[in-house]
């Protein structure tokens, strides 16, 4: 793995991915999209990773989009294609990232520790839970590329903050600061900069204490039922998840640990 991403395990079962280009405002080069996608794919099939935290190096910028000065090489694009084909091939890979995040069985916590702009807005929106440092700022800089939304932002944003606030944000590019982001539901909460990582780890610790399969099917139910056609459909999906989770040995261990007043030791069986 390159040094574009740092991966550590600050708590057992918690994998933290840190975007590591602070000297370039943590912007992405083309090769970084495939690198992050590969990380997500590896984590998906690692049952011992229970929670993912996505954050960035430094204390000024979370990520300000794509690196326009040094964009890197999109080596998956066929040689000799014109600009429309180049754009279509590149966005196909870039836009896979929020989908991969939502499809992970592990909850993703996004720790926004500075300015987030451009395509990077998809990260806090696609995460299950987002916390922001008080210094964080959310900017729709996608208009600099000619449009106001990409990577599913026009789908994710109104579901987080409502259509009216989403329209203003997408149409005007007005920056949203951390306190407002908390107030409108763009993030769960804004915390002092020095408390951001600990706040994320506290949430992660509470997730890890629950049945692994239970968290997996609960995450599926949460996001898929956002588009359920009826209450009955939502209950049916949840009920199937209940059956699967209750069939695991980990469910028995969770109950046993509860009565014995100790931390559960899951076996992923």
Task: Let me know the CATH homologous superfamily of the largest domain.
Answer: 2-enoyl-CoA Hydratase, Chain A, domain 1
Query: How many beta-strand elements?
Result: 10
The number of domains is 2
In the CATH hierarchy, what is the architecture of the largest domain at level 2? Alpha-Beta Complex
Which structural class do you get from the secondary structure elements?
A: alpha/beta
Encode the helix/strand succession as letters: EEHEEHHEEHEEHHEHEHHHH
Distance, first to last CA: 31 Å
Shape: globular
The CATH C-level name of the largest domain is: Alpha Beta
Protein name: Enoyl-CoA hydratase
Family: Belongs to the enoyl-CoA hydratase/isomerase family.
Organism: Pseudomonas putida (Arthrobacter siderocapsulatus)
GO molecular function, one term: catalytic activity
Describe the protein in words.
By secondary structure, this protein is α/β, with parallel strands linked by helices. The chain folds into 2 domains: 5-206, 2-enoyl-CoA Hydratase, Chain A, domain 1, CATH 3.90.226; 210-260, Lyase 2-enoyl-coa Hydratase, Chain  A, domain 2. It has 11 helices and 10 strands. The strands form 2 sheets. Strands 1-2-3-5-7-10 form a 6-stranded mixed β-sheet, sandwiched between helices. A 4-stranded mixed β-sheet has the order 4-6-8-9. The radius of gyration is 19 Å and the shape is globular. The relative contact order is 0.11. Belongs to the enoyl-CoA hydratase/isomerase family. This is Enoyl-CoA hydratase. It comes from Pseudomonas putida (Arthrobacter siderocapsulatus).
């Amino acid at each position: 793995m390159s040094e574009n991403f740092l991966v550590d395990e600050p708590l057992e079962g918690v994998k933290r991915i840190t975007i590591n280009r602070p000297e370039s405002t943590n912007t992405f080069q083309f090769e970084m999209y495939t690198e992050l996608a590969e990380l997500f794919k590896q984590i998906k099939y690692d049952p011992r990773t229970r929670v993912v935290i996505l954050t960035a190096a430094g204390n000024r910028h979370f990520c300000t989009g794509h690196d326009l000065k040094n964009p890197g090489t999109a080596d998956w694009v066929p040689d000799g294609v014109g600009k429309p084909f180049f754009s279509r091939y590149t966005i196909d890979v870039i836009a896979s990232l929020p989908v991969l995040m939502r499809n992970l069985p592990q909850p993703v916590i996004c720790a926004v520790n500075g300015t987030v702009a451009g395509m990077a807005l998809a990260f806090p929106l696609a995460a299950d839970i987002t916390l922001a440092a008080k210094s964080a700022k959310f900017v729709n800089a996608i208009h600099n590329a000619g449009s106001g939304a990409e990577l599913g932002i026009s789908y994710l944003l109104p579901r987080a903050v409502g259509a009216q606030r989403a329209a203003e944000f997408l149409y005007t590019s007005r920056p949203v600061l951390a306190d407002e982001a908390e107030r409108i539901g763009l993030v769960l909460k804004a915390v002092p900069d020095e408390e951001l990582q600990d706040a994320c780890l506290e949430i992660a610790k509470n997730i890890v204490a629950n049945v692994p399969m239970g968290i997996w099917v609960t995450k599926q139910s949460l996001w898929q039922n956002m588009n359920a056609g009826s209450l009955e459909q939502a209950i049916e999906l949840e009920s199937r998840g209940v059956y699967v989770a209750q069939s695991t040995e980990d469910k028995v261990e969770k109950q046993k640990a509860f009565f014995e007043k100790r931390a559960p030791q899951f076996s992923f069986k």
